[in-house]
Amino acid sequence: MTAFAGIKIVAICLGLSMLAASTSALADMIDTSGMQPWEVCALCHSLDGNSPMAKFPKLAGQRKAYIEKQFGDFHAARRENDGGQMQAITTEVELEDLPAIADYFSELPAPPAVSVEDVTKGGEAKAVFQDGRGTIPPCLMCHGTTDQGMPLAPWLEAQHEDYLVKQLSDFREGKRTNDPEGVMQAIAAQLSDKDISDLAAFIAAQERPERTP
User: Fold this and answer.
1) Do 193 and 201 touch, CB atoms closer than 8 A?
2) Smallest Cα–Cα separation from 125: which of 95, 168, 89?
3) φ, ψ at 129 (rounded to 5°)
């Protein structure tokens, strides 16, 4: 990436932050000419895939199939986010470039876990994550290694804690509905605020094992 492109990314990021509440204005202001398709995504998610803001998930080392599904869901309005930023940005990328975008981010090194000193690993979070509780299956059943997990379920470890809280809360409240068969909505409906907080803190502090996407 050229120095000019880097400057343009910074400038556009500032515009994104100031105009997050205005989807139409966002779409009109973004100049993506001359940028690689993954550089458009890097405006918020960073070129190394480790976004500095918890509002934007870390994409580094994420499953390729999951990245493609979420992008497609935003593009088709099957998933929404606060202010509609993702819906707007998907119109700046050709769908035929989606595999290259997913390849780029999925092949980046996985993000480091949050320092244990920075989080509270309380309650039954570890047990729920690894073994489940009552009618709540273990998180690793779907989000575990390739042999255990599902291609459309994302890796969770080392993700932003606040992002995890937001997504679990949105599933619980029916604000996010693009989970296959409504599985996550059903699970999140059984979680208390403390469950969600403890799970997010525990998961963010876990190192992501070496895996094959």
Assistant:
1) no
2) 168
3) -60, -40
Q: Do residues 131 and 209 lie in contact, with contact meaning Cβ atoms separated by under 8 Å?
A: no
Give the integer Cα–Cα distance in Å for 112 and 117.
Answer: 14
- Note the pLDDT tens digit of each residue in 123-177: 689 999 999 999 999 999 999 876 556 889 999 999 999 999 999 999 999 999 9
**The predicted structure's pLDDT at residue 80:** 92
Q: Which tens digit of pLDDT belongs to each residue from 8-45?
A: 444 444 444 443 444 444 445 566 677 899 999 999 99
